[in-house]
Amino acid sequence: MTGTVNMALIGCGGMGRSHLRSAREVQELNFVGYVDAVEAAAAGACHEFGGRYHTTDVEQVMRDDAIDAVLIATHHDSHPPLAIRAAEAGKQIFIEKPMALSIDECLKIEEAVEKAGVKLMVGFKFRFAPLVARVKEMVPRPLVTVGQSLHSAMRGWPLTPERGGGPVLSNGCHAFDLVYWLNESEPVLISAAGGPLTHPEHGLVDNAAVSVQFENGSIAAIIAGDSGDARYTSKFFFEVLDGQRTATLFERCHKALLSGCEVDSLSVDELPTALSTDPEGTRAELQAWARCLLEDTPSPVGPRDGTRATAMVLKAFEAIRSGRTQELRL
């Protein structure tokens, strides 16, 4: 691959456009094709961000030999067929979270990617948030981790079980992935409480309090759902404690308070401009994606990471429904 990755965006809605705005500052990524079921959305993205064409036919992109990679930002239920088709077409794949809505679908994506020999990266942006990286350096082996993804009532397709998976999976998967990443140990036991608290009409688990035990013996507590705005901590909140040091990430990981570390507090506003203007890692994750393609290195957030996050959430659902702790072995 040359010094530029020719990309196609599949799904030109809000999340797709968010990636396009970040990609404007990633010179290695060149978006040339736009696909959406709504022609006006694809046309609008092409007009605003530039490119060679727009279409409602995803096969046009799959057949286009000039396209090196695709960014999939569609409804969650469409991720598996699109990712598998892209792998079959030899396209590199960046896919929005969650990778899929079931463990079986995740494993099928893994199989397709491995068989095709392409790379896949999952959009877990908080791994690339600058203060998260600092906290991971300061408290590299936590004994206890706390994670939170709480927001006001979800609406629209992400709420539905068949298309979006509901708030615990749709948005909460960020918390499950980051708690894993802060520990870098496989989750092995999951217990949970929760249920259809805010949207009983859908019958899905929309709020959950989850306990995780990792292979190395560390533990975590995760709260996820759409029961309301967490005004003090913010939607995304994380804390790591190792017995001597504590780091608390709040205000969507834009700020941190520390104890037992070389500094007492951190703020993205105090960082160099390149970092302070990307507080949640939305640009950095695309830069990492471009580097892995151009340098032919492993994906920084690979398909197994996508499978793990979905599996952690779904095992929590099983624990809630059964009243029993669930084993997780991938």
Give the helix tally: 11
What ranges have pLDDT less than 50 throughout 5 or more consecutive residues?
none
Structure classification: alpha/beta
The first-level CATH class of the largest domain is given as Alpha Beta
**What characteristic shape results from the CA principal axes?**
globular
Proportion in β-strands: 15-25%
Mean pLDDT: 97
User: Major beta sheet, specifics?
Assistant: 9 strands, mixed
Kindly state the number of beta strands: 15
Can you write the helix and strand succession as a string?
EHEHEHEHEHEHEHHEEEEEEEHHHE
Helix content: 25-40%
CATH topology of the largest domain: Dihydrodipicolinate Reductase, domain 2
Superfamily at the CATH H level of the largest domain?
Dihydrodipicolinate Reductase, domain 2
